[in-house]
């Protein structure tokens, strides 16, 4: 069993931390092809988010949106507004910078100020997209389908 959880030492040489990927992780009615554990410290919420290098923006999932509203955590002045086109339709919301932690299974967690689209109508999962989030870190994905794949990350 220990062989399933091995670290790619070549990739870990430049990274400060890494985590196991959650392949085909199901959340509500959604199947996340590649999930990553993250935390929103301001609301003390951990969840598996969809890692999507093809997503233009990061989206705060409905649970995160509701938690910020419920906890009445001040998001600050929006840094802009945006409309995103998804397979679920078009969604318009406000862009906010929020602190997000990529949880580490080895090494150190990585804390990022990410830009997320907050939209009340979005019922999907939290999405970690390219602009405003993934572009702010160095990362590598080791799918290693025979075992358990990983994501390696470091600050830029």
Present the secondary structure layout:
Blueprint: H1 9-12, E1 17-20, E2 22-27, E3 30-40, E4 45-51, E5 58-59, H2 62-71, E6 80-86, E7 89-102, E8 106-107, E9 110-118, E10 127-128, E11 137-142, E12 150-155
Parallel strand pairs: 4-10, 5-9
Antiparallel strand pairs: 1-8, 1-12, 2-3, 3-4, 3-7, 6-7, 7-9, 11-12
Notes on the structure:
The chain is mainly beta. It has one domain: Cathepsin D, subunit A, domain 1. Helix content is 9%, strand content 49%. The protein has helices at 9-12, 62-71, and strands at 17-20, 22-27, 30-40, 45-51, 58-59, 80-86, 89-102, 106-107, 110-118, 127-128, 137-142, 150-155. The longest helix has 10 residues, at 62-71. The radius of gyration is 15 Å and the shape is globular. Mean pLDDT is 86; it is low at 1-5.
The profile of the biggest β sheet is: 8 strands, mixed
What is the overall shape? globular
Low-confidence stretches: 1-5
The CATH architecture comes to Beta Barrel
Overall average pLDDT: 86
CATH topology (fold) name: Cathepsin D, subunit A, domain 1
**CATH superfamily grouping:** Acid Proteases
Structural class: mainly beta
Helical content (DSSP H or I, runs of 4+): under 10%
Q: Termini separation (Å)?
A: 34 Å
- What's the alpha carbon Rg, rounded to whole Å? 15 Å
Number of strands: 12
């Amino acid at each position: 069993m220990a062989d399933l959880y091995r670290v790619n030492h070549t990739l870990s040489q430049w990274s400060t931390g890494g985590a196991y990927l959650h392949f085909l992780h199901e959340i509500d009615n959604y199947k996340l092809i590649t999930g990553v554990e993250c935390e929103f410290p301001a609301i003390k919420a951990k969840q598996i988010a969809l890692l999507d290098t093809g997503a233009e923006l990061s989206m705060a999932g409905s649970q995160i949106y509701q938690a910020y509203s419920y906890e009445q955590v001040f998001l600050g002045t929006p840094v802009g507004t945006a409309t995103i086109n998804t397979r679920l339709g078009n969604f318009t919301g406000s862009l906010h910078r929020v602190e997000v932690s990529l949880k580490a299974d080895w090494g150190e967690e990585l804390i990022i100020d990410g830009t997320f689209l907050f939209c009340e109508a979005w019922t999907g999962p939290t999405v970690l997209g390219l602009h405003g989030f993934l572009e702010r870190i160095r990362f590598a994905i080791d799918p290693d389908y025979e075992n358990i794949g990983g994501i390696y990350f470091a600050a830029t």
